[in-house]
Input
Amino acid sequence: MRLMIFSDIHGNLEALENVLRDAAKRNVHRSICLGDLVGYGPYPNECIELIRNVKNCRCLAGNHDVAALWEASPYGMSKAAKEAILWTMDQLSSDNKDYLSSLPDRIDLDEMTFVHANPYNPKGWRYVMDRKYALRSFAATRSRFVFIGHSHRPLVISKKHWLSVSIEPITGDTEYGVNDSRRRIINCGSVGQPRDNDPRACYLIYDTRKQTINFHRVEYDVQKTVEAIQNANLPPVLGRRIVKGT
Amino acid sequence: MKIKHHGKTSPTNLKQRFFLWSSLILISGGLLLSLLSFWNTRRLLMAEAMDKSEVLLQEVEAIRTYVKSELRPKMAELHGKDAFIIEAMSTTYISTTIMDTFSQSMPNYIYRRASYNPLNPKNMADPFEEEMLDWFEEDSSRTFWQGVVKKNGESFFISMVPDYFASPCLRCHGDAKDAPQPLIDRYGKTNGFRFQTGDLAGLNSVAIPVSASIRAAWQGSLVLFLITIPASLLLLWLLNLLFQRLVIERLGVMLSIMQEKKKETDAEQPGDELDALHASLGSLRQFVHSARKGSSLQPNFINGYVTGIPITAGAMSWLYNGYTTKADNREDVAIKIGFDEALQNPLYRACFETELNLFETLSHPCLPKFRERIGDVVILDAVNGEALSSLFEKGPLQEHLTKSIFSQLCDLTAHMHATGVVHHDLRPQILHFDEKENLTLLDMGLASNDQQPDPIAAAGLGPQGDLLYMAPEQIQGKRGDPRSDIYTIGVLLYLANTGKLPFSSKQRSLQNWVQHKAKFVIEKDDQDALTPELIDIILKALSNSPEKRYQWVEDLREDLEKVFS
Output
């Protein structure tokens, strides 16, 4: 079974379309979106509708999705993020709001756990990028793999023993073998706003038969999204970020 | 929804009742244990005191007998018949003097010789002893008394024996004129005379103080009680924790479903969680009965629709053919109607609601399209074709039909699994295949969704559905594992290619079913009808252990496509 995992679209329709087109060529059976469909980007409704129509796709709620429903306050976010959320609130159709509110915050599938930020407190939205929070995440689940998003940086954290982990940032298109019994936290990066200095959209495919995880980077027309951000009167800094991939 | 009450119900919930009863039982148990401990300690103390006092009394009696039978005659022989030496001839004097000496070294043993009319005033009976003298006088057959008596705030265990005058005693206690002079000189002529043979001379008693021992027994019991209270609280906490995990959390899922239904229908308040569950299970028989006679439940008109003949029986409902009542534009439809009894049962209503919700939200070419819901009736697009069970009865299917059916079935199952749904009941009776080679699934009454509580698992109802097609772990009550559906597809694959079920004989018990399925092998005749690749696929899909089975239905589909390509 080939499982596509992607996250943090943030209303970037151009990036999402290109990612789905790329995945379609790679014989994907199922997809799981780890949340943050909206926020930052100019096409929240379009992105939600596109994801709803992806065959065999499940979606989780991210912090921006929850904030866009006023289930969490956007005032704790950065200034640009807050402005984008307040704008998104006005744009979302009631049908799409209903869809966002129906999203779960965790999915467990066989030996895999899927969350937006972390498994020990999914609605705490803390980043898992270091040893302390990685160990806490490993302790919170018995799954072999924990797939996360949220930080917008593709990453593999492997558990070496009960006090030690290895952290490997992933760059570019990478095939990562998991044909061993190690437990891992895998961050699939971001589709709509990568922050690892690579502006290309990022997602991964886990092949359960081959036991490989393939990280893919997909080029898209960034300028088109930047123009849409400007046209929507969203903070210009959001356009600059997706150009640089920061 | 009206829940039938079985027996007395209580408004408190199960956890509170369990907590109250268990704390009451544990505290009562601690109290009872302490009381039993006190009672046993007191019993042992009394038995010990009885033994000691009896020994002393027997010793005093032995002294008195020795004086009467040995010492006194010898003194008379030595000093003459009229001689009377009180220190060597008076039983009372000698016995009381010896016991006074004894009590100097053993102050806890008090010997008393008491009489109404003693020679020695110090032997005068006190009020209690007077009472006892009266008691012995009332009935001469009474020869012994033991008991606990309180004197001056102190408790004593007392043993008493009466003493009666014999004729030799009357020399000193008969007429004062005949009494020996040394006796008169010592005690005077006033008291201790005018007795006759057989009169009650007095009481010999031994008293042992027991207040301190009883107090110690009380303190011991109190300490025991105080120790049992924290131990009981700890046990109570552990029991409640266990009860919460094993019972309350699972019942809570059921209860939430029932409360939801109650809000909808303003039902009568049931008792605790088990009362409500009891009520639910109580109507199960009626439900099964109704399911069996389901075809007679045809309604005629439902809003703008007319029902026709039934297509198939689902787990919770019947599916009927139907059509719209519009004369100018008549459209065929399928009408899903839940069994009345199933709708009245909160458990099965929850399953039916899940099914309707799945028909409404899932979108796949193999599912009839949802049109509208009218109360507990769902209108779906018309269903064509015949059941796979009818097709399979005709013998092994042609390869292109098998390919078409299983390609669609795997795709549908993958779609359900991808959305967190496990079907649990992929019987050939509810899968229809039409002339255009379209497969349609007609029922999802036993499906579970991983984002919603599963009422069947929560209620621990055991396997639901047809055991012939069921995976072994599902027969054992496990639900929600997508690999159970893969097993069922394996059974259908076997049936489609051989025209026979892999498990032909029906078994008596669930355990027998599990054992029977574990021994599955493809028979020689059937092996000839299957290609080696197909045999591998079937054996893998029908592995008894879910871990050895296909883990994903997509993998099964890929392997099947290779075989049929």
Notes: Chain A has eight helices and twelve strands.
